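Translate sequence into structure tokens.
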Amino acid sequence: MPLLLHHSRDLPAPGAYDTWFAITATPADGLDPKKRLPDLGRRLEQAFDAIAEDWWRLGKALGANPSAHWAHAPTAAAYNSDLGLMMAWSHLAADVAGESRALAVCDDPWLFRHLSDLPGCHAGRPAGMFGAMLRLWARGHLARLRVAARVAMAAWRTRHQRQAFGRGDPMIQVYGHPASTADGFDAYFGNLMAVVPSLRRLLHTDTPPARAVSLAKDGRTASLHAWGNVWFALRLVFTRWRPSASEIQGPWGWLVRRAAAHEGGGGAAAMNRWQMHCQDRWLAAARPTVVAWPWENHPWERAFCRTARRLGVATVGYQHAVVGPHQLNAAPATNSDGLDSLPDRILCSGPAYRDQLRRWGIPDDQLSVGGAFRIQRFDGERYDPKGPVYVPLSAIGPIADQMLDAVGKARRPGRRFLIKDHPLYPHPIIESEDIRRTDRTLPEQQGLSAVFFATGTPGLEAMLAGVPTIRLLPEDRIAPDVLPDGLSARSVTVDGFGAALDHPPPPPSVPWDSVYADVDMDVWRTVFESTE
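Result follows.
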């Protein structure tokens, strides 16, 4: 069967197709909702699962390009790049083409051209390219100018902090989390600085200088910005990922072009390069004995491992939160130099994620369990079949919108909802008699009849709390699944949420120790004190 491919301003007659689907961010106004491809969210996630190894192979090949070391797409990071999503749309479209007369509505000019090359695709007039490229080009230059100015100012403002550390100090490198304090408590490593008095804290360059100055009052904390060269910041204006001619050819060529254009339309590559510049200068000057950090295998972390290994600095990555089947960047499969850009040791928050990383190819002798600093043990007595439904909104705005849409469609007499927005990404919530806002996290709740989540840790917390857990499948993007292997929540689309609440899944029984472990301070002392 043919797949008809059109953009939203060039639609065929309704009789030309049996079903239709709209690809991410493409409006579908005027199309018959009765003909919409059913179960699209589930099919899109299945397509994403199917292309995982393709993204790994493509990412590793792309990562050999030096400019790709600043980019997120080659690392297969689903939260930072939508290259995998575009590959999933391609997989889904190819499947649909063999089923019935289907219409794919796509306004993305790069994806449109990629899909038009699929067997059995009958493409209309392609979506315009020039305007999209011009907007990204202009936005990218402005973004990099802002990055250059901001980091140059940060380097100047924090330059005195270079004197905070001596050579050979053991270190943690962390993000400037709002919960961290100037007395040494850290959101990622708890009271570890009190347990290991020689330990020092270094702040990632995404920490604003005002926050860095505040946290540095303890005399044991400094900003990486302090080691940055102000004049080097000027070079960031020209920093972007530039795929080679061969990399923009082949079966994924149009999607590689798209990924490079979209990353070039922002300042992420410039920030990654600045982080790498600062950490290289700091490592050379400070020569710490060992550095631990919240590890996710992002570009700057891979570069950090390479430099540290060359300088003889021990590295410890802390798998600090979650991984799950969709955070593909945590696998070593895309590391262009294999294990050489992984930490010497990776301490995991619990056995479930250690086992997953082992299955993904990290050697067993590099993995151990250090325990969960960020997620505290709590009991599993949170379930009440007559209680409200707890809805922790995603940090991703469009997904949060869909969650609220699902709540609106699931309203019934006697059914109550507690809505919590993300602390870093506030979201408008219209309260009513049956919809209330809450600022309490799931472990602080009692008496819940169900939890409805999309991204982040709340779904796992719900399962540990013994509360029926329902997960949203967006129909225009992927909500990365972070549940460890062996755990799964009931997955629904926006329209299926109400039915899931009518017949909820049974309360789960998940032992805490099967997923997480309590913090083992003896392990952490060994990490830092054995190198002194």
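Note: The mean pLDDT is 94.
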